[in-house]
Amino acid sequence: QVQLQASGPGLVTPSETLSLTCTVSGGPISGYLWNWIRQPPGKGLEWIGYIYYTGSTNYSPSLKSRVTISVDTSRTQFSLKLSSVTAADTAVYYCARGGGYCRGGTCFSQGILDFWGQGVLVTVSS
Amino acid sequence: QSVLTQPPSTSGTPGQRVTISCSGSISNIGSNTINWYQQLPGAAPKLLIYSTNERSSGVPDRFSGSKSGTSASLAISGLQSEDEADYYCATWDDSLNGVLFGGGTKLTVL
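Output (structure tokens, whole complex):
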């Protein structure tokens, strides 16, 4: 059974960079789109972006200028960095596996997120 | 504000049938299949329905999905207390080239 485990600091200072890692076990990292999604307290889900195992990425336009997602296939991990954080970035951050593939710089998917990590609450506060 | 529009809340009594709607546009629901996620209190979302009408492993057949044009629906029949949760529609958006979520619907079982 595929499992995802998100980890990282639960408290980040405003204007600093939020960094989270998702470790994948029980299945290959190749052949899938690896996603980050967040959920502010009491609110809905917001897609942040994904990375394909080859390194192709795509980010939400609203966060694109501050987001970097990377992958380490040798460790079956992928990571999220969100810079210049504010209180509005306080949320539970989830990692999730998505079906799809990328070819020639273009990615194709039906947006099916079939396995999710448990989520990490990140609070932005001084 | 989500581009996929869901009612914020709905409710039903045990045994009843309820539906949750999800409205989008040609670039998302109109061009792609729809997925539904169930989020129980304090838990991560779980894939419930994928490819518009396929139930994820272990999901009872009380749950069903459908789509027409740029709108989709999740139906839950024989409502049970354990169905009380938040439900999110989601799909791929061709303009975004990413996943789009609805705002979520809180289902209360009275």
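Chain A is about 0% helix and 55% strand.
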